[in-house]
Amino acid sequence: ALMGALRTFASISRLHIVAIAALGTFTFGWLFTGNYLWQLAVICALDWFVVNLLNRAVDLDEDIANSISGASFVERHKTAVIAVGFGVLLLSLVAVHFSFPSLTPFRLCYHSLGLAYNWRLLPGKRRIKELYFWKNTASAIGFLITLFAYPLAWLYDSAGAFAFPTGINWATVWCAMLFFFPLELSYEVLYDLRDEPGDRAAGVATYPVVHGPAVAGYILQGLLALSLSTMIGGYVAGLVPWRLAIMGAAPILQFAAFRYLLRQGRVGTSDCVNLTWLGAALLMCYHLWEILELPGAGG
Hints:
Blueprint: H1 2-12, H2 15-33, H3 38-58, H4 60-65, H5 71-76, H6 78-99, H7 104-118, H8 134-159, H9 170-194, H10 196-202, H11 207-211, H12 213-236, H13 242-245, H14 249-264, H15 269-291
Helix pairs in contact: 2-3, 2-8, 2-15, 3-6, 3-7, 7-8, 8-9, 9-12, 12-14, 14-15
């Protein structure tokens, strides 16, 4: 019973996304500040938990059509799920503000984006989820806010200036963002390939729905190539230290995994979840490598 409850919680909260977002904030926080910002990682996890939980309630019809795990639980407890999501959001905004007031503007931006993504708050009673191109872009911007703006706000608030560690400067930060943005978008396209039947039925204009799965696959691979070339270019130009450049392994592994999925046929739910957990595992191995001071650590 306990394992079943844990599996249901992991599914409805999209724990794999929460985990990779929190580890991303932890990782870029360490790179940009030289400190292990556990508190920020927890806040990031909380924020992604709330947005994902509310998204499950709003996207219920698509999730049922796509046979997404946990959809039946959300269907039975939809009102409670929404109440928990908004309750945690309001309480956390108040509680975190007293400890990290510099984060509040960025958290408000993030959750405003999340609300507009999930709910029909735009002109014409539309939501970002239904807008071609902007759907994936909004999700990637949400990651940029939590993974980059959160640590930078903490750094400025704690030091009174952007006092970066050795080897890090604003050019490094921009290279990291330009590397991460297309990499994250590739995950969005991967999930869209999984959700193509339900999104088509719901009229959600994703790349697979509009252009077909084959073209969406080319877009995904192009995004990975852009991500990798940005990191390589930054390292060759001396803008990116080795401890950041090594993250270029992520788009390479993502490309290999996607090519494997193409040979297997349609992308499934477990494929997306497993690839997300693989990304989280890479981040954990990255820190383990640094902690053990293995070859290349700290470079």
